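Morning F.,

Quick status update on the modeling queue. The single chain you submitted on Monday has been processed. Sequence for confirmation:
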Amino acid sequence: MPISIVVGGQYGSEGKGKIAHYVARTEGARAAVRIGGPNSGHTVYSERGDKFIFQHLPTAAILPNVTCVLATGSYIDVARLLHEIALVKLPSHRLKVDPHAVLITEQDCVDEHLVGLRAGIGSTLTGTGAAVLNRISRTRPVRFAKDEPSLKPYLTDTKELLSLMLDAGDRVVIEGTQGYGLSVLHTPFYPYATSRDTTAAAFLSEAGLSPIDVDDIILVVRAFPIRVPGNSGPLETEITWEQVSLESGSVDPISEITSVTKSLRRVARFDSTIVRAAIRVNHPTRIALNHLDYIDKSIYKSKTLSARAMNSLLEIEATIGRRIDLIGTSEELTFSKVQVIQPRRFA
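Structure tokens below.
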């Protein structure tokens, strides 16, 4: 049962790309699957410290021996994908695109702009939602990956490819997008949602794989949840980046810019309500907590937790009713909790 699924537990930007890369690297994954569209960007750092933001490729693309897969549930901006391929010099044998992945057209982006999605729900206007609508309408023109000549070197039946890898006992990592609180089916804040379901079950379905092959679901959350700027929906206990900076003890101001629209994110204090709902639906085997250094900047890039950071960690575990298994203390670094503190039973 060698499938790991990485899923967000809040409103996106939880650091799923970093965790997916960590899992692929530490567990020797044979393939990494990225689904969804270019409406979310995942950031990863190479061992040399080079920063990459991918809207299509899985973050394991920077690892040397991982096959990158865009499955049937993908919505592809061809120009963006080709840019990312060139950026990391990804050879054709390491990228597999399903022929029935859907292509995003310029008209899709125009349509989202015309209906006012940016002002209405904070949409990134990448055309992903319009492409989803085209697909499910079954009456509108749809372009598939098999219709695009520039993608011909990468076309593969990804369901068959992944099934063969699983039959051989190889590890497959599915890198989900957005977060549970943005699921078009399950968010309590509809219509402030993305155009797809964002649960582990949905990601697995979009990859075309079976639930019985899953043995690992990693729910990723942040110490300070965010939403994209504008009218993007409720954000309980919203605060300012100035407050985050001051309370963390950081010498330099802390803030975050969205990876797709390059706008200042909204930020809030940790709220267990949406996380507990995400736990109920996704039933994760592991939970990762990122941006713990926003609690205490002194632990940035450190495997040692201060008393303040430890107390916050314990409080978060108590409010969600689960232990934290992976800890992120910077954009670059992820640690198993066993590395930073002695394991203990969570009561």
